[in-house]
Amino acid sequence: MNPDILDGFAQASMMSSLIATGIGSLLGLVVGMIPGMTISTGIIIVLPLTFVLEPTISIALLLGLYVSGMTGGSFSAILLNIPGTPSASATGLDGHPLAQRGEAGRALGLAITASFIGGMFSFAGLFLIAPLLAEIALRFQSPDLFSLVFFGLTIICSFAAKSVIKGLLSAVIGLMIVTIGQDPMMGSQRFTFGQVNLIAGIHFLTALIGLFAIPQLVDNFVELIGDKETRHKATRIERVLPRWADLKRIRLPVCIGAPVGAFLGILPGAGGPIAAFISYDYTKRVSKNRDEFGKGAPEGIAAPESANNAVTGGALVPMMTLGIPGDPVTAILIGALLIHGLAPGPLLFVENGGFAFGVIFSFMYANFFNIVIGFLGLRLLVKVLATPNALLMPTIALLCVIGSYALRNNFFDVYVMFGFGLLGLAMRWLDMPVVPLLLALVLGRPLEEHLRVSLASSQGDPTIFFTSPFSVVFLGMAALSIFWSFYAEHRSRRESNGATRQ
Amino acid sequence: MRRRNLIAAIFLLAIGIGYTVLTAHLPTRDIGSTTQPSFFPWVIAVLFLVLSAALLIQGLRPATGDAVPKAPDVAPNKYLWGGVAFVVYLAALPTLGFLAANVPFFLALMYLYGERRPLWLLGGSIGISLALFFLFRKVFQILLPSGILSGVIS
């Protein structure tokens, strides 16, 4: 057996890593459950902690939060019909009607079980695919890597935006921000305006905190959780463990949801909500009980829940093997690794194989903690739904400021974070997605480096990007993804115009 | 939505032109076949201007049935005071230090998020600010400046 696998298992099984995974899972369930709090915000809250922890422990904590955040989102979707995370929207379609019939515990139990199965399926996928993909990726040269990163960016833009132009513009704004600071090839200063703090560039995590947390604080001026009475009523739960008959009913939905979620997770930008709705829709078509869908069908809970948790393992595949984040959370994970001097990508498996497998096994443990804490602590956890925004939101605000400061012990980063918060609000007003900007901040530097290294090696000849089959395939897929997005946008506009005329 | 696109496109075009001018003034180096430091910014500038122009054209086209996102039902004063609280807090932070600045900021935010009970306002703002400050300073060893309280806090 590969010694890195054993080393990774040992790293993930250390008591400190297990405690971190457990704490992460607990926080994830809480964060995911609170409407208006996203998993990204939850990760931002614990981010300062990761600066002082060992990389293995940091990543275990963040993975626990990521995995359980997905499950936690379904709790409020089921109990209050308000999804805690966008990925849980489909779960509420059947989960809430079941809760309204007085079977909230049954619905929650099914959600936790399906999440676990989806998560473990994607763990198996991650364990088997990631090392193989990393091995292939080791053969990539600079032109291939440029084309790959470029493809990653375009597919994210097309998935993340209703308008392709706005998605692409958002990514280009991110690339503009990346050019601030030292040029990666020669160290020349660009756009620093004599400001010493800008020489090292804008820290990606500072931008992330502002882009995600400040709009969230503004959003939560509106109380999303409903009145106090509804909240307290929602926290009363009966039997949680699923019955044998229910487990038999969810066999097919989880067999659909888990592979769909794991596959869509691998595609950058596709994410949990798409996987959950596709699985829900497909399960409904093939189910014998399709008439019960929308009225509290267990299948309607299991399919989206297994799918959105399977997305997490899928999203880790491109992040770990290619250094391409599939969603904001994996982008933050890349940031957290970079802080510790670990660059995700194919070399991670060569230079830090033990650590890479440690991440994979921590992901497995996160799924175990998710089901254990979910079942044992559910009755206590749902009490969090009664936490008032008046305590929660100011705490998040302080943690954002502390987190930005702690990155480089610099007040300048706090101001930058606030600036990015305003940018995030402006972009939302303009209906422009922030995710492409965020991912461009992560991918911009490697994009420039690979582009310029390739051109330098070819004496400035751009045909170098068409000399390798890998590069040609990636560029072709990038062109296809842009073309398809424009076509889909055009078609949806035509359909909506037709509907308006009718 | 069309009007917003139009405003966005004009604003973005202005930024794009500014970025292009700055790119044109970036230093050049005599480095043989290697690309100049301004190479990537030039690529971005061109892309940005093209995309902004495309958004402008979209904005100029006659309006269709695009849905305008509904603004949440919140008093505009809340946004304003929230912004003011944040700006004042950030301005005072380097002088006052984290603890002394956090307490009134936390209290102001609690009030804006709807808390009106004086005891909760005081207890929450002092208690949580203190807890966070010492958690990061003592447990996580992140040296948060204590500002005007530096003589009091070890």
Please provide a written account of the structure:
The complex is a heterodimer of chains A (502) and B (154). Chain A is built from 21 helices and two strands. Chain A has helices at residues 3-13, 15-33, 39-52, 55-80, 89-100, 104-137, 142-160, 164-178, 204-219, 228-234, 244-249, 251-266, 271-286, 298-322, 328-339, 346-351, 353-381, 389-408, 411-429, 435-457, 469-501, and strands spanning 181-182, 189-190. In chain A, a hairpin with a 6-residue loop joins strand 1 and strand 2. The radius of gyration of chain A is 22 Å and the shape is globular. The mean pLDDT of chain A is 86. Chain B has two domains: 2-60; 76-149, no CATH class. Chain B is 68% helix and 0% strand. Chains A and B meet through helix 3, helix 8, strand 2, helix 9 and helix 18 of A and helix 1, helix 2, helix 3 and helix 4 of B.
Task: Provide a brief overview of the structure.
The complex is a heterodimer of chains A (502) and B (154). With 502 residues, chain A is mainly α.
SSE arrangement:
The complex is a heterodimer of chains A (502) and B (154).
Chain A: H1 3-13, H2 15-33, H3 39-52, H4 55-80, H5 89-100, H6 104-137, H7 142-160, H8 164-178, E1 181-182, E2 189-190, H9 204-219, H10 228-234, H11 244-249, H12 251-266, H13 271-286, H14 298-322, H15 328-339, H16 346-351, H17 353-381, H18 389-408, H19 411-429, H20 435-457, H21 469-501
Antiparallel strand pairs in A: 1-2
Helix pairs in contact in A: 1-17, 2-4, 2-17, 3-4, 3-15, 3-18, 4-5, 4-6, 4-14, 4-15, 4-17, 5-6, 5-14, 6-12, 6-14, 6-17, 7-8, 7-20, 7-21, 8-20, 9-18, 9-19, 12-13, 12-14, 13-14, 15-20, 18-19
Chain B: H1 2-24, H2 39-60, H3 76-112, H4 118-139
Descriptors for this entry?
heterodimer, A: 502 residues, mainly alpha, two-stranded antiparallel sheet, 21 helices, 75% helix, globular, B: 154 residues
Largest interface: A-B, 63 and 66 residues
Low-confidence stretches of chain A are: none
Beta-strand percentage range of chain A:
under 5%
Structural class of chain B: mainly alpha
Helix content of chain A: over 70%
**Continuous helix count of chain A:** 21
Distance between the termini of chain A: 65 Å
Q: Oligomerization state of this entry?
A: heterodimer
For the CA atoms, what is the radius of gyration of chain A? 22 Å
The level of helicity of chain B is 55-70%
What is the N-to-C order of secondary-structure elements of chain A (H for helix, E for strand)? HHHHHHHHEEHHHHHHHHHHHHH
- Count of helical stretches of chain B: 4
Counted beta strands of chain B:
0
- Gap from first CA to last CA of chain B: 55 Å
The overall pLDDT average of chain A reads: 86
Number of domains of chain A: 1
